[in-house]
Each structure stands twice: as structure tokens, then as C-alpha cells.
Amino acid sequence: MLSVSRIGSPGGAAGYYTKEDYARSGSLDMRDGGAVTEIETSDGLVAYYAVSEDELGTPLYWDGEGAKELGLEGPVDEADFRAVLYGLNPDPEGEAISKLEIALREAAEKEMAETAGAPEQPQTDPIVDYPAAPEVDVPPALPDEDKASGAEPKSAWASMSPEERIKAAEDHHEKHVAGWDLTFSAPKSVSIVALDAEGDPRLQEAHRLAVDAALGYVEQHFSVYRVRDGDGERREEISGNLLMARTTHTLSRAGDPNLHDHVIVLNATKDEEGTWRALESEHIFKHMKLAGAVYQAELRNLTQEIGHDVRDGDTLNTFEIAAVPAAALAQHSSRNAQIKANMTAMEEDKGRQLTQAEKEAAVLLDRPGKVQLTREELQENWAAANHSIGLDVGSISLTAKDAEAGRDLSFAKPSPFLNAIESLKDLFHGGKGAFQRPEEALAYGREAAFHTSTVATQHDMLFRAIVANGNRLRASDYIETGFFDRSEFLPADRKVLAGLTTQDNTDREKGINAHIQERFGKAKGFEPEAVSESLSTEALSRRGIDVALTDDQYRAVFVALTSRDGVVAIQGFAGTGKTTAYEAMESVYSALTALADARADLAPKTAPVKVALASQQQLDDFRHIAGGLKGAAPTHAAVKELSDKNIQADTLSSILSRYDFGKTSAPEALTKMRKEFKGATLVVDEASMMGNRQLEKVFEMQTDLKIDKVILSGDIRQIASLQAGAPFKMGMEHNEQMAKADLSTIMRQNANPTLKEAVVAFAEGKSAEGMKRLKPFIHEQGRSASDEVIADKAFELWKETGGTGKVVVDTNKMRGLMNGRIRGELVREGSLSEDGFSQPTYRDAGMSNHDKMTSRLYQAGQTLYFFAKVGKFKAGDTLTISALNHKRNVLEGTDRDGKPVKMDIKRNLGGRSDVPFGVYQRTTTEFAVGELVLFNKTDKPRGIKTNDEYRITGFDDKGVHVEARDGSDRSLSLPRADPQLEFMTYAYAVTADKAQGKSFDSVIAVLKAAGQGDFVNHARAYIMSSRAKENLSLVTDSFRDLMRKVTEHDGINLVGLDNLRLDDVIRMPKGFGEKDKKKDPIEKDLVSAESLIKPPELAGSKSDLANAAKTMRDQPGDAARYKSDGTMDMGDKQKAMERPQPERSM
Length: 1146
Prior knowledge:
Residues 12-385 form the TrwC relaxase domain. The protein is α/β, with parallel strands linked by helices.
């Protein structure tokens, strides 16, 4: 396992890492693998880390190429270690290794110059953007006799004593991050056998070599620093060197055997020009699970090579020595046992399962202090514990030494959950598991990585391959296959360090662009004159719409309905009234359709007819259109908004599933869809949340079902799709001729001009300006603030709103913390009945579709809930996992009635584009009368939609009674055994993802900067700030850190084509970019814009709209973007490959 901790106090850490192993009173929280914590220490603490030389561990010693660059080798001197923690070169005459040290040196020189009366030296700047030079006390200038001695005069900085230099740095240490602690922990069975007096010390060497392998990978790939280009943009580079100090420890906090290494990575790395720069740690945090997997895989192989049999561990990416039974692991995990006991006692006391916050509190109960035992006494205790359970460590060690090599016994026995026939199949399958070959595992890794992003890295694919394979192969085994050198991978590193895309990804993007171009001039647009007349305020009022359209709304509806393009785009900022535009669009569409039908029925075929369409032929065609105006959206909330405006709508996934089902299994269903959608106009709301595969499927459906027009509406800067690609953004930017309109007049925050300025800046992509304007609404809790501290502040702000504010949070963990606090307050004040009921509920396990393709990512106890037919499972069925058969990639367990069932993942999911089941953890939730709840599953027959809010009005033995909170006063009674109740949860707080598309009068937002990588980005800041109409409070840990995250990560999915290197030739599909648009028949009947579309009340404001229908098709577009041979014109058109970035400023 690997955990990563940020060192918060250089002074304390210097002592913390240089004392005895078993004397511990420091405050480091030794978390489970993968945890991210912060170490806060002080000089007064007895340190925890570096053991004395006569113990089984090792003293702190230097490691890494960066240490060699400074001449630091062998055991660590505490003074040198303290210096580098503060960002100082131990050699005061050597190169400065941090911005802080540069500033301190210059301050010292300035002080010396002023003391001696000499002219001040000009300031140099080998490292950009260092802080202003602080005041530094320096010794007086050298006396004359010293100068006359001929000795080389020392610099002012070198003239100071080491203590004085440390003191100067200590006074300004907040300007320098000291470094990070990477803790590599061996599996418990390895610790038991390696550290026992009669154990196998070779395992300690295996552990050391495994840490070497992981650190080698980290140093080679994640020693990242930043520099500025000539245009001021930052780029990332890899130095290949890290400055590290390292020690091996052998104890847990409770005194159990626990072999682990602490690797202190200091905040300095040397670039290729010889300048020391700050380390960009984000890559280490982002890929710490990969580094941990490299360590585990290497140690597993080394353990087998020295003769030990192994088996899979109980947690992901771990293993154990097979000869060490589970009882021994428990015996030597007393701290974990204590934590579990605390949790059990708390659950019994509360009569329910614990919340996440309560579980974390249980971890902190009864934390042991330092262990007051010698090594010999500890080993005697361990031996006694082993004897009590019949474990002979000496025998295990001797057996391993006599063996040529150890075996993998993970699949030695058939699963106990299989019947006789299945057991024979399992035996026939052999001793190897699924994804055993490195190429097979890497193929899975590639598919999983590119499922969520068009640009991925070797690291993304490698980690997924190691997981699928179960750590049976070393990282080098994968790399040596040459898989990452295949021609299918294209360098795409313009925005992602070492980024790659695939030919398949770029072909898909080219195909999307080609479809948009092929649909130019192919749709039936309404006459601009008729649309203009129908959009007048008077005409809209007659049809029951009493809202005056803004210029933007008017333009959007006009372009959407008059365009003859088969694909139209509406880019709309948050709060610009897209739903009002939809309402007007539906009203005009319905009115003109009815008018066309009526006139066609009344007019003689031979008589000239002036109707809403340009010609009699179009009119005849239009009469036979059955499709009308239809809607689709990725979320139920967006579907509801379309439906509320009389647009027949369904979720995008539902429509695409119906289409796939019709194509593959039900021709009659496909025939029905063709009748339903033929000639229709399909409005896709929240189109920016679609991935490439989804839009590709929509376009396939458009061709097959003969959909006349697809109107894509979205906001490119809001939260993007969970699937790869940003096709909505790409379609608009790569196809200049595409019919499109902008909704940019934000109205939602009219009551709060200051907030509106921030939202406008975010909407326009100006991250830094948006954050600065958001400052009055920020409640900063401090860089080291825990989730609990942040939740307490958000809860306090919620109470200040009188309980009317909506809480919008960043993570599900924070959502749980806030729901718990708010619900507790409602119980105390009597808003919730004291009488309640316990309801079994599901908590989403958060697995992606590709996660679901390998059994290794599931856990026993999880439940699969099927939303559609999968093999023998039908909609509504469940499978609660009892065992995981990694040999055959099979899930085994029981159904809702307790009958044994299994699912062969490859057989049932292979080749499917959808995975129609969710994976959940069963839990129990307390509900009461008055509770505000929502459902995480749609039930169409009863009108229940995901995320719709309800109030519990009562309950009894027969059922639970709820009332809708959508203003309809709709009531429902759900039987107590109704599976729908299992998807009920609290609705007091929502995540930003689920708040998208909603608005509230008052919002309390939580967006923490620390520990979340690029999850914290411009898109989330934009969503959170734009949900509020009147009042906003945003709680965070550090405004400065949040500013940096938001300005550096836009949250927009990458476009593969935009990230290819400019020296790569991009070939488009045959003929792409060469076809000219046919002259639009609408042009022959266009008259002046003034007489055609300008309603009297909009004179002067929309006068260009009629000509827009013509000029949108006359702009030079993609034909100028590509050469005649179909390749990208890289001359004047380099910007076609540039991805716009938010402003970057600190």
C-alpha cells in the first residue's frame, strides 16, 4: 500500500524523521493505503521515523538523483535535512534550491551592502516569481584583516551560521512547501514473516527492492516542474530527478509488526538547464495508486522468487503469503481490531449504521501512544501470539528457502459457491486468472482509460492493466511488450504531459465533424418571415407566453427553426433562460405546423399558396411529418424542463438504448421508432454533457430514423460528460459554417450584481477574474482545515439562512456530512417527527462502465441492481455478491430471494456499449415524517424521476407516503417492500453535478481545494456560483489554492484532434472539407431584414436575424481550414488546433 502525506511544518518534520522507531507521540495519522493526509508537527514532539542503527530498520538516508546533484549521499545529517525541508541548500555557496532561498540570499546581500555602505547590487532572477525579499539579520561585514588575508570572501548568506539561515527561513516558511511523505507498507503477512525472530529476513530486502522499483517509476515520470513559455503560458516538464530521504520502519502505532518505508520527497528538482525548481506534486498525488501497484506487483514477484507461495489479498491490488492464515493477520492487526470494535459499539449504541463522519471519529478513539518495549520484548510478544494460533513462522521460512520458487495459490481451490458442473469448468480453466497475458490486460487498460477521456497517458492504461491482472506481473513486464509504442497511439501532449490519443478516437471525432458538414442544407427550415411573425411579443402572448424574449432568446429560436442545416447548435450560459427559449420554440413550431397543415388542406393544389414553408413541395413533405418537436437530455432534470415546455422528451440513455435494442434484438421496435422520429426535430438539452460515442450514436440515429434536424443546446464551460470527448464544443469550433446561436445575456443573478459579475466572468472562461469577483462570497477555513471543519462552517451558514438555503457540495462524502448535520438540527428543533423508521437503502459504489468489466473491482457484499435485461437477469433483479471468481471473471452470489446466482462478465457484457446495472453497497438509513428526500432511480409508471424532491408525510406498516415538491402536490404511497424505497436518500445537500440545470434563491456551496486534483476546476466553480439567484456563500480551505486549481483546470473534456502535436499530419475522411454547401433555397425568397423579421417592439435590436440565415452559410469555414488533399493547413490556421484556455493569473 502507498499513502501520501503533505509535510506541513518543516521544523517539526526535521525532528519527526530522525528519532527512534518505537517512541511515538507525534500526530501523524497512519491511514489506509491511498490516503492523503497532512503532517503537522512541532519541534517539541518526539519523532517517529528514523530508527537507530542497531535496530531492524534503517537510519534516514539520502536517495534520488536530486540528492546526488547536491552531493548528499549516505546517512542523513539532521542539520542538512532541516535545511532542505526549509528549501535551503545545505551548502550556502551552492545553488539556491527554492524561490524562498533566492529571496533570503538577496535580502542578506542587500543588508550587508547597506551595512558596509557599498552600492546595492542588482537583483537577479534565475527562478521566476519568487516572493519579495524578506528582512534578514546578517553579521557585520568582514574586518579589514580578514580581507587582507587573501581568503575568498564569503557571501552574506554564507557568512551566516546554519542556525541563522534556518531562523531566517523559519520566519517565512509559509512561503515554501517542505515536501511530501510517501509511505510504502508491506502486506501484513510479509511483515509477520520478515520481522519475526525466526522469520525470513530476505523479505526485508524484497521490500526494499520493491520500493526501489516504485520510486524509480515515480522519479522517471513524476518529477515534474513548471516553466513559462515566451507567451507567458505555463508548461510542464519532467526533470528525471528527485531529492529524497528514506528510512525503513518495522512497527505499527499499536506495536504490531508493520514493515514500511517512509520516503520524504523534498520540494526541489533540477531542470535541464541546471536551475532548481519547485516540484509539481499533483502528478504524484494523481498517480499514487499506480506507484503503490508497482510496489505491490514487484514485491509479489520477489516474494515468489525467494520461495513463498502467495494468494490474493482481501483488498484491491494486494497479496498475502499463502502460509499465513487469516487468523494471524487479525492477531497482528490490533489497531484495526480496536477501530472495528469502536465502530461496532457506536453502531449498537445508535441502533444503525454509522455515517462516514462517525466512522472517521471511531478511527480517532483510543489512539495508542508510544510503545515502551524493546525490540526483543516485541518479538517475544509476536512469537507468543503466533504460538497461540498455531502459526510456525520458522517453518514457513525454512520451507521457502528450500523451494525453487513459490506458487500462486489464489486459484488452487474451486469457489465454494459453484455447483459440480461449474466446479469442473473452473478446474478446466487452469490455474491462471482473467487478463493473465500482459497484452490482454493492457488492452483492457486502453479501453478503460479512453472510455473517459480522448487523451490518456501510459500511466492511466498501466494502472488499469495491473488492476485487471491482479498484480501478477511487474510494471516492466507490461512496458517491455512495446504496447505503448504501437502506431495506434498518437502523441497528444499539448495539454496533458505525455498525453496520447488513438486513431480510433480521432476517427470518431472526424466522423462527427463530417456528419455536421454532410447535413448542411439538408433540413426543412421554416420561412424566416413566418418565424419572425410568430415570435413577436403579441403573437407569443396570444399563445399564452407572456414573457418578452431577450435578443439572445429571439435569435436562438429564429436560427433553430429557420436553418436548413441538419445540425444546429445553441451555446447558452447558465441563467440565460434556455427554458424560455424552448417554450417559445415549441409554441412557434406547433403553430406553424398547424398552419401548414390547415393551409394545405384548404388551398387547391394548383393555386399559388403562401404558407409557412418556402414551397408547395416542402409543404406537401411537411404534411406527412409525424415526428414533430422532440427532446432528449442526459439528465432527468433537463428532461423535466423540456417536458414542462410541452416538448415530448426522454433521457438520452433511454432513447439510445431503445434504438440499440431495436437494431440488435427487436426489428418491430426499430420500425416503431422510425415512424415516431421520421422528419422530427430533436432538441438535445445539456448537449455539453454528451461524450463522443453518445453524439456519434445520435447522428447514426438521425440518419437511420430520418430525423430532419438535431438542435444541440448546452454550455461548454459547465460540467462535462463522464464519457470521453467534448463533441458539442468541437462541433462548433471545427465547423465555422455550422448554424449556431449564443445565449449570453445572464438574468438569473440580476438581484445581485456583484455575484452576476463573477458568474459572467466564469461563463466567458475568465477563471481568474471570476475568482477575484467571487472573493466577497468566500469563507476561508485555512489550508489544513479538515472536512469536518469545513462542514461545520457550511452548516453555520445554512442556519443563518433560516434553513432555506440549498447546500451544493463537491463530493458525496461532504454531502453525507452536510445531510447529517442538517438532519440533526431538524430533529433538535422538532421539524422532523421523533418517530421514524429504518429503511434498507443503496449507496452507489461509484464504478464506471469499464470498472464493471473486471471482477477485481467488485467487492463481496455489493449488490447489482439490473435496469434492463442482462443474460438471465431482467429489470428489477438483483445479485448480492458472495464471492469473486477472478479466474473466470465471474460474480457469484444470491438474488433477492436468497437463491444462488452468478454472472459471467465477459459472456454477458462483452461487446455491449451499455452496462445496464448499477453497483451498490447496502446500508440502512433512518427516515422520519417531514423528511426531505429524493430518489436515485426513475420509475416512469409512477412519475418518479431521479433527483426529484419529495417530503415524507407519513408511514405505517403498509407503506411510506410522500408528497412531490415540484408544486404539483402529487402524493404517492409506496409499499414498505417496494424496491423504489431502497433508492431513497436525504435531499438537504446535493453535489454540483446533480445541481447542474437547477437554481435556488440562496446557495451555500462547498468546494475544497486540497486533495482532489483536477476534480476542482473552473466548471465546478462556475456551476456552484451560478446556481444562486440572490445569495451565495462558498466555503473552502484555501482561497489561494482554490484560485490556482480553478485557473489551471477548466474541467472541459479534451478533444483529441485539438491535442495532437502540430507536427503530426491529420488526415480527414475522404472529401472532408472539400464540399461546398449547396445554395440554400431559402435565399431566393429573402427580402430585407427590416421588412422580413423585425417585430415593431424589437426595432433595431434584431435587424440582422433574417440575413443570419443566409450569412451563416456564406462564411468561410472548414473548406478554408483544410488543404485540398484533406490534411490540416498548418500555416495561418494553427489556431484550428488550439484549445482555448481560461485566464491564468495568481
